[in-house]
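User: Can you help me understand a structure? I only have the sequence.
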Amino acid sequence: MCSFLLPDESSWLLEYRQLRNLVDKLRQAWEEFQSTGKVTQPEIIKPEVLASWERCKSMKLDPYASPNSACLSSSELEERLKRNRLLIEVATPFLETLAESVKTSGFRIDLIDNELFILRQYGEDKAIREAVEHGSKPGVNRSENTSGTNAINLAAYLKRPVQLVGPEHYNINLHYWTCSAVPILSPTKELLGVINIAGHFSLLHKHTLGMAVAIGKVIEQTIQQRQLMEALEVSNQYLNNVIHAVSDGLIMVNANNVITTLNRTASNLLDVDAVSALGQPVDNILGSANPFTEVLRSGKPIVNREIMLKTKKGHTQFFIGTLEPVTTKQGLEGVIGVLKPLSSAKGFVKNVAGLKAYFSFADLIGNSPEFQRAVQLAKQAAELPTTVLLQGESGTGKELFAQAIHNASPFKNGPFVALNCAAIPGELVESELFGYESGAFTGAKKEGRPGKFELAEGGTIFLDEISSMSLNMQAKLLRVLQTKTIMRVGGVTEIPVNVRLICATNRDLWTQVEEGSFREDLFYRINVLTIVIPPLRDRMEDIPLLVEHFCSKLSQRLGVSFQVDPKVYEVLTNYQWPGNVRELENLVERSAVLALTRGSQRIEVSDVITYPGFRDSYKQGRQENKGMSISGYSLKEKESTAIRDALKICKGNVSQAARLLGVHRSTLYRKLKLYGVNREIVVK
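Assistant: Let's start by predicting it. Here is the structure, written out as tokens:
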């Protein structure tokens, strides 16, 4: 009968018999492996297939179970389709063309994502229905650990084309198919997806894999081009937004002296319509004597120079400008210029110097009555332009209050300039506050330098530790407050200043006035509104809030979520806190670090009491709170007696009594209230 077949029919019959023989041998090997876990003729099985079978065996996959159990819901599939939008958009036209070319062949094409979920299927309706009948449809997962060995997961695993037939699949339900799979890779060899051409195992042909490889390469290249184009489009949009978002005027001129870019700020500064200016010679817009033409001619930059521009409308304006020539291997390509109004030059210097307030009233943590009274008074003070005096011990947060007042005041758009008077040698305080002219003293900069009052123009100046200022400087500061002008060291011209003054001290200024170390007239000038910030030991109920706040800040900074043992709060409230809130923040951070060294994210009592000096003070505090008897008297009684004696000696003067006892005046007032001591009765 074979002698009557045409040559191509004879060849097809031979190939079919060879295929049947191959499939029979593969089926025998598959059955042997499922029974014994071994193959006596391993040369029949591709090494990569056998390795996959062994992995499936070790995972105890059931070769007879449905390979389609891992399947997405409709909503999950919809989300995955959105996530793989680019892959689908690029691949679909090519796969539809391929499906049309293999029409009536019985093949279908699958598009799979990088997690091996089938996204879409292409082919004639009959091929798609056949696939669905066998459980292969969009949403089904074809990873090795769910459906066993198949061409899709092998192509993804090996990152190269793979063709399998019938029994080479680990799961018996997939023996129906022959599959030719090709991975879609990024330039860095990351898996983007897989293309799979599938049909009945009798349709096996090496040319099928060749078609899949060709289509896969085209899709890879197209995706790369699309990604580059989209990235370029995004970059251009970002650049365009940046150009128009900057607060400085920006102008770009090409080698032909034509304006190519003019942002909104430049348009407003020059009173020029941006649309009509683009494409125009810069001479037509800014006149023939403009600096852009000068830089194009000379090729030399202009850096932070005062420049004059005369617009077509006849307006003359002065700017601080920087113009840079743009040069490539081909030569001078154009000029880019940045313009800043001359009036903003001082503001520019302030911003560069970082003269800003970062804290607001939301950063003042505490619910205790005394603290809340201080906060409310500060909020009221913020609305007024009056001078404010902040009084409190070191570490209570005086600068935080000052910054919060500034940020809630009419001066909030101006700079916030702080100076710690105690941190600067007395002879340098004047030059720091008022600045100096060229050659004012040895070591002075030749161009001179503005002082803190000039830098604070239109904003707030915060003088911390003002009690440390010398009497001579106090007199000069008083004059500034009276005249609203300053004079630089070595200068002869008075400079008007418009600033809001906030002062701070950790000492009793009135006591210093009585001692003669602080001017009484300056005291009245800065004591317009006094805000007393209570020490931490007077607001123990705020400790949990503060600890939570500091832990939250640490968690954000270190990327660790810290917790606090409730017993820690009991320990913390039995400590006197000489360093106040600043000390508490340091203790919390140190304790958190110690917790991390233990491999924990929970702060324990053992972490806290190792703080230097804390253990002894904590023990003493506990003893005091228990009212331990010493020589027949409780500590409370001895303290009350000492206060009464001090008041008698000082004839009721609380400041003097506090100094005699070695405590702050606010502490003595608190003790008077605590022990019910009436100083008038005591003196009598």
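Now, to help you interpret it: The domain at 633-683 is CATH 1.10.10.60 (Arc Repressor Mutant, subunit A). The longest helix spans residues 206-245. Let me know which part you'd like to focus on.
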